[in-house]
Amino acid sequence: MSKFKLANIFAYGFVTLFSIYVLLPIIVMILTTFKTRREIFLEPLGLPGQFNFSSFEKALSIGLGGFIFNSFLVSLFSVILIVIIAGMAAYVLARIDFRINRYVYLLIVAGFAIPPAAVLVPLYVTVSNLGLLNSIYGVVMPLTAFGIPFTVILFYAFFLDFPREVEEAATIDGCSKMQIFFRIIIPLSGPAIASAAIFQTVWIWNEFLLALIMLTSDEVKTLPLGLMKLRGEWSSDWPSIMAGLTIAILPVLIVFLIFQKYFVRSLAGLGK
Amino acid sequence: MNKTQTNSIGFSLSSDRVSVIILLIPALIFCTIFIFIPAFWAIVGSFYSYGMTSLNDWKWVGFDNYIKASQDEFFWIALKNNFIIVFASIVLQVGVGTILAAILDRGIKYGKVIFRTIIFTPMVISSVAVSIIWLLIYDPNFGILNNILIAIGLPTPSMGWLGDPDISIWMIMIVAGWQNTGFMMVLILAGLQGVSKEVYDAAEIDGATGVKAFWYITLPMIRNIIIVAILITTIGAFKVFEFVYVLTQGGPSNATQVLGTYIYLQAFNLLHMGYANALSVVLLVIALILGWFQLKASRRA
User: Fold this and answer.
1) Across all residues in chain B, what is the average pLDDT?
2) Which residues in B lie closer than 8 A to residue A124 (C-beta atoms)?
3) What pLDDT, on a 0 to 100 scale, did the predictor assign at position B1?
4) Which residues pair with B60 in a beta bridge?
5) What is the pLDDT of residues B56-92, one digit of tens each?
6) Residues A146 and A156 sit within 8 Å (Cβ to Cβ)
7) How far is B243 from chain A (nearest CA, A)?
8) How large is the average pLDDT for residues B201-220?
9) Which residues from chain B sit within 8 angstroms of residue A245, using beta carbons?
10) Which chain A residues are closer than 8 Å to B27 by Cβ?
11) What is the mean pLDDT of chain A?
12) Residue B225 lies inside a defined structural domain of this protein
């Protein structure tokens, strides 16, 4: 009995300590937002004397709204492209007995493994040659390419578990593979699409390296670049920097809390 | 085989093939233009010397870039750091993630969803934002870490948490662990929840409960998920960029440089495009080896 109790204390203790480790930086961020610069310097561990919202105003005045809008556009365009394109490819891989499938799958896995840094210079040159530097499409296109392999793997696992009967019936009714995909598979793939979309949104919303090399003028910069600008310009004005971070993080956090079950589900598919 | 099947239900093979090609082609085009062709040019370009302003003025240098890399102290530091991050991430993220998953699966009764949500949350926050928050925490003057240690009378590093080359890479690992452990936990938890209750009942009859049952029965059953988790972590460790770029810029004196940041530095700060390509090729080779392992793992699973 006492052994059982000890194990229980350890179990609760471990997850509680880890949760504190996770929550502490978020609490620091929020509290710092409301502090004054004086308070940060004199009492780094103290609570804010009063809730002052001036740092929020300052963060918004630097154009954070524009960065958020750019990130929104980049995420929207890329995720739509990724989900449709990867879904189509995964369907062929999972369902159609096609000679080159094996090689396509090999390419997809290779594409998943290759990080942007491994092709950094030629990728920059490619985007430059396409005339897309300093345009949001200059990140939408490569991000779509880098998002496809992972999403194909995700959808592939989902389609393998998909009941075949529906498609067989449709085939007998004379539907082509294209029609089957768009009229039957897509409408029935809600959960898989939601998982993939959320996953990619989070990744693209936060992507930094490609945005860093492709986007240099302020009008097209995405949120992570905007945060770096904040940090660069206000080096020790931590309340304003943290206010900017809070504004940046909050929308994603809310979306996550609403949709977290899809997140968890999409991870379950990864193990396959 | 395909031919007879499709023909037997009166369905023309050619239209089938056309739709297959239409469905496959967009994915192949995107990956080819933005991943495979650049990979090819990275390899070709690694044998040339050129700069940002002379993107079309290539000078053949043979293996010079690779010879330069082999003699470049900072390249070796970057490579070593990537390997440190691989091993530290496997222990900290997969190891601790497994313990957390096991506890949330069967170790505790109350608060499972709350704990899971809290621990997974950092995953959705941008690495840049995460790193900036930790910059404040590590700050020698304003940071809570130093101030807590001073308050309880413990020593603090004289060069700062990120300014001391002996500890700075580990300080980065704390941030990486903060962001990624929850991801591993949820991935492994999904695997654990697939283990049926009968298995545990049978184990209990054999006298295996708690940690023992987990070690001898559960863990071998989720072996594949653990392998996938280790692979994702390893691939991720070679992709590391933001943490280093924001927290230390690769410093102090290149002590925390990783391949990603060093390639960026060579290409876009020093404008050694050819040399950056050679470094990229090293990363490419490592990535493809890992991809091959990934393929093997997914086949087995």
Assistant:
1) 87
2) 267
3) 39
4) B48
5) 778 899 899 999 999 999 999 999 999 999 999 999 9
6) no
7) 11
8) 80
9) 129, 132-133
10) 85-86, 88-89, 108, 148, 152
11) 86
12) yes
Which is higher by pLDDT, A73 or A191? A73
Nearest to B191 among A153, A212, A271 (CB): A271
Question: What pLDDT sits at residue B5?
Answer: 44
- Looking at chain B, which residue has its C-alpha nearest residue A43? B142
Task: Please name every residue paired with B49 in a beta bridge, in sequence order, or none if there are none.
Answer: B59
Nearest CA in chain B to A104: B28
- Alpha carbon B178 to chain centroid, angstroms: 14
Whether A252 and B96 lie within 8 Å, measured CB to CB? no
* pLDDT, tens digit, 9 for 90 and up, residues A120-156: 999 999 999 999 999 999 999 999 999 999 899 888 8
Fold of A62-234+250-270: MetI-like fold (1.10.3720)
- The ipTM assigned to this model is 0.89
Characterize A141-165 residue by residue with b for buried, 16 or more Cβ atoms within 10 angstroms of its Cβ, and e for exposed: bbbbbbbbbbbbbbbbbbbeebeee
∠ at Cα B81 (B79, B85), nearest 5°?
A: 120
Number of CB atoms found within 10 A of residue B33's CB: 17
Can you spell out the DSSP letters for A218-266?
Answer: GGG--HHHHHHHHHHHTTT-HHHHHHHHHHHHHHHHHHHHHHHHHHHHH
Three-state secondary-structure class, residue B130 = helix
Q: What percentage of residues in chain A have a pLDDT greater than 70?
A: 94
Residues of chain A with CATH 1.10.3720.10: 62-234+250-270
What is the C-alpha to C-alpha distance for residues A264 and A194, in angstroms, rounded to an integer?
11
Q: Quote the number of domains for chain B.
A: 2
CATH number at residue B210: 1.10.3720.10
User: Which pLDDT score is estimated for A163?
Assistant: 79
B264·A117 Cβ contact <8 A: yes
Is residue A36 predicted with pLDDT exceeding 80? Answer: no
CB contact under 8 A, A271 and B24: no
Domain of B245 in residue numbering reads as 67-300
Chain center to CA of B80:
15
CB contact under 8 A, A107 and B246: no
Under 8 Å CB pairs connecting chains A and B tally to 306
| Claim to verify: residue B12 and residue B129 sit in the same structural domain | no
Compute how many other C-beta atoms are within 10 angstroms of the C-beta atom of residue B192.
19
Of the candidates A22, A144, A152, which has its C-beta nearest B119's C-beta? A22
Residue B2 has pLDDT above 80, yes or no: no
| pLDDT confidence of residue B9 | 40
**Cβ contacts of B188 within 8 Å, gap of 6 or more:** B94, B97, B98, B101, B222, B225, B226, B229
Given pLDDT bands bounded at 50, 70 and 90, which one contains residue B196? confident
Residue pair A11/A213 in contact by the 8 Å Cβ criterion: no
Among B21-30, B142-151, B197-206, whose mean pLDDT is lowest?
B197-206
